[in-house]
Predict the structure.
Amino acid sequence: MAWVEHRHADAAALADALAATLHRQCERALVERGKALLALAGGRTPFPAYRALAASDLDWSRVTAMPTDERCVPHDHAACNLRGLREAMAGARGLTLQALTTRDGNPDASQAAARAMLAHHPDAFDVVVLGMGEDGHTASLFPGAPQLDAALDPARADGAVRVDPDPLPPEAPFARISLTASRLLHARCIILALTGHAKRAVLEQALADADPRRHPVAAILHAPSATVHVHWSP
Ligand SMILES: O=C(O)[C@H](O)[C@@H](O)[C@H](O)[C@H](O)COP(=O)(O)O
């Protein structure tokens, strides 16, 4: 397990640093491999960084991004992460955004579609941006979800799984499609971005307790092969 802590004065400074890191990693990928592949968390924390990144001077025609997880809702639904990403990154002319769900958000059809899409993108992500909830979830790897063990299984190669959070989060009471822990860890740069003291306390618990069934984010933090860059601000 290895993690590098990046403390920031406030959420705005965190967003600036995150945007700079994303830009740097994308530029490196374009120079070294001629393309870049990103997996980007939903939620509120990273979106200012996505907007700043979209305004930068990358050759977006060679960049592909996808959500780390998606709510099983129609693509025009307000809770759709892809919709939010599309809006935040509207300035990134030529960016390819890959969906994890079908247009209607049907959970089982979406799981199959996500797996088929990922089969066409087998390369390591150049950057994965993750958030964390106060229950220790990351992406849509929710504690207590019936599919959590499957989503954490390092032997899985299908890359995406339907997750039915139990209980359903009141702010987003939907089934999800989540990239699996092993697919999220198949990455050159892994960033976990969180703010506030409550989440800091949960992070400390997850760092101290490697059992991902209590805090699924521990599956990322304690992965033997990964170095996780934790960006935190009060
Ligand atoms: O689909 C989502 O919402 C995210 O992937 C989810 O895992 C998010 O990163 C955390 O819930 C933190 O969200 P905030 O950044 O809004 O606190």
Q: What stands out?
A: The chain has a mean pLDDT of 97.
